[in-house]
Here is the input.
Amino acid sequence: MIQKIFYSVIGVLGFSFGYAQTMEQADSIMKQLELNEVIINSDQPAKKSTRFYQSSKLSSTEDILARMEGVSLIRRGPIGMEPSLRGFSSGQVNLVLDGMKVFGACTDKMDPVSIYIEPMNLQRIGVEHGASGLEMGSSIGGTINLGVADAKVLGERSFSGSVTSGFHTAAQAFQNTLVTNYSEKNWAIRFAGTYRKANDYQNGDGNKVAFSQYEKANFSVSSRYNLSESLFLKADFIWDDGWNIGYPALPMDVGSAKARIGSLSLKRFFTQGNVEHYEVKAYANSVNHQMDDSNRPDIFMHMDMPGKSQTQGAFFNVKLNPTGKHQLSGKADLYHNYVIADMTMYPQNSEPMYMLTWPGNHQTVGGIYISDHVMLNKENHMDLYFRGEVNVSSLDSETGINQLEVLGYDASATESDFLKSGGLTYKNNLSGNYSVSLGLGYTERVPTTSERYGFYLYNRMDNHDYIGNPNLKKENSLNAEVSSFYAKDGIVWKLSGFGYRIQNYILGQSLSSFTAMTYGAQGVRQYQNISAAYLFGAESSLNIVLNEQITINNSVKWLRGIEKGGANLPMISPLKSYTHLRYSFPHLFFQLENELSLAQNQISKTYGEYTTPGYYILNLRGNYHMKLQNKELEFSLGVENILNTSYYEHLDWGRILRPGQNIYGMVTFKL
Here is the structure.
């Protein structure tokens, strides 16, 4: 029965609407839709479809991600939410920054890569599902690529910038941002900075949510030097510090989280010959993370839990000009990551106890990616892609090796894995306004550090300690997706139906013979492979332009996840819909939004889940901008959760209520 559901779901077709600023040829409209990309910072006015994702300049990276196709957020606190892509998360998804690998340093997943980047230093966010995201690395769920904003070389001496300041009432929070760009004839430098501070927020019941405060600062510098008209050098650096970050759904907060991310790249374009362009990039980054329970009341035993991640890498990608019906592109990449995390426990009237929660793990990965865009004819296109990857992992800590030896594992040997993944996407333009596509793929991924080597990692969701398993097999997935596109007279409509069959799915299994180490935990679970799991669902995005003043956007996401035996998979979001209606004047717009989620009754009680009620919330936003000679002043005002609804989402750990009614104001001054 499950197999029938999986293979029949690829026949699900439906509707999705997008917006085209001008109704150009159908081919260009289809290409725009298929990019599945949100442009954030640009010299050009934002397209009306983009405004749906970034409702204001106070939107965080997480706010934008939550509205994108197939993306959900696992929430443990008000920031640092973990992106989930069609039910895949953590090591099942590539979460990269401008193509660079960055790894969090927290064993409790408090620091996904997205927490270290702000919209002010982003240019775009791109999402690729399944095998279509293999360019950025092997994964079974796909890729989220956070593209860094570039400095703009304008060919003349020029300075531009903006300052934004805003305030939120629900958490008595404020945010200040600064962006500048200075350009000379052949070079430019861009600086962006953001500072955010929030107190404990107030939920829909009128109560303060303890330990939901946070404070963070983010700065980025991007520089570009044009060596010639077709060759340029680019350097980027991001500095991000967060402190006193509360996580109400977890037993610990974050005392300090620091990231330093740098890169240097060279890119060249060609006007003739076989090569269209190539890029070479080298990068390095470090993340240091300190969990902290010193402000929590009634602590049974104080603990220090620091973690560190360091990554160095490089890649080379090239795109060739079309030859006959084919256009080839490729990428070669190599990176090394080192992570380590430990814990020191301070029991009363006893000596401190020490253990490695992540034994020092070196991981070296090298891969080659090749794709071929095939123009079968004017109406039929095909994309073929393949990735081969070698993954080498080893522990450098005798203490960590001895810990795993106690559990019966010999982790002293180096682990080597060869991953092979590939897929194809076929597109057919049935008419000038209608197109369909079919995608098929096979993907593989290796276990994460936690899954392989983790040592008594506490999971608050199901109240169990988790231990790793060095003998885990690779996960592999077969996936299929079918989509339809329609574009005519200001209406563009897209629907996708998809299905995944994952073999050797990694899931925690209870060990009755082990005793929990965490005080109050119900037991111990170990990561193990189950024979198979299935994920299937559908997504739709709607964008209608009624006239110059009125735009309507809508997106719908539905997902179902089950094990081979029929048991529900945990952390699967129910059907969810976003809709907004915008009415625009020359210098003013109003936008009404609603967010709707159905109840989630298909739960996994085994993994600590409860049924989640549905909810419906309303937001209202307004914006007015005015010219001051060659400068611009912009005012924004909005009310989120107008009805002060008391609600939480199914992926919110601990069923912590989200903010109630929130009034915000913002002022932006542009040079």
Remarks:
- Residues 135 and 380 are 23 Å apart (CA to CA).
- The chain has a mean pLDDT of 91.
- The helical segments are 2-8, 26-34, 48-53, 61-66, 398-406, 449-453.
